[in-house]
Each structure stands twice: as C-alpha cells, then as structure tokens.
C-alpha cells in the first residue's frame, strides 16, 4: 500500500487543472457547434451505481463545464489513455 501523501489545496487545484487540460487536449480541438442540431457531440459521465464511466451522445443541449468529443472513439481513447486524469476530474467534481 502506498503511503498517503498530503497535498495543499493549491497543489490539488493545480493537479486538477493539468488533468482537465490533458483531457481537453485529447478532444483534439473539437469545438461543438451548438447551432447545429445535427452535429453529434460526445461526453463522458460516471455511473456511481455501476461504478464505471460511460459515453453520452448529445445533439442540442449543453451541460456547462463539460468536455465534448467529436466521436465516440475519441472519448473512448481519452478514457483508455488518461484514466488517472479522469479520476482526478471525477473526484474534483465531488467537492
């Protein structure tokens, strides 16, 4: 078991910002066009009952602060390649 490392609130926020930017970068610069209802947008959510992430398909409604992906494959790749960063975002959202 790893020893517990105590970090300051500033260090935790820095860790969150780096994780968030890493995930934003994994979206490959995708910018949703909210005026285009035909454009499918993908985001990631967490199911606490099933204890796993899942990918949402959205078209015409926007959640604030959410990172969107152009394809389901991009969202899946982000989850696969950056599991620690997704955990940091999820844990930060519980504060």
Name the descriptors.
single chain, 95 residues, 41% helix, elongated
General description of the model:
It is a single chain. This protein is an alpha+beta fold and 95 residues long. It has one domain (9-93). It is 41% helix and 15% strand. It contains 3 helices and 2 strands. The protein has helices spanning 9-26, 72-81, 83-93; strands at residues 41-47, 52-58. The protein has a two-stranded antiparallel ribbon with strand order 1-2. A hairpin with a 4-residue loop joins strand 1 (41-47) and strand 2. It is elongated, with a radius of gyration of 15 Å. The mean pLDDT is 91.
How many helices in DSSP terms? 3
Mean pLDDT: 91
- Provide the gyration radius in Å: 15 Å
Query: What class would the helix/strand composition place it in?
Result: alpha+beta
Count of strand segments:
2
Strand order of the largest sheet: 1-2
Q: How far is the first residue's CA from the last residue's CA?
A: 25 Å
Which spans of ≥5 residues are poorly predicted at pLDDT below 50?
Answer: none
What is the total number of structural domains? 1
Main beta sheet: strand number and arrangement? 2 strands, antiparallel
The geometry reads as elongated
Into which percent range does the helicity of residues fall?
40-55%
- Pattern of helices and strands: HEEHH
Q: Report the sheet-strand fraction.
A: 5-15%
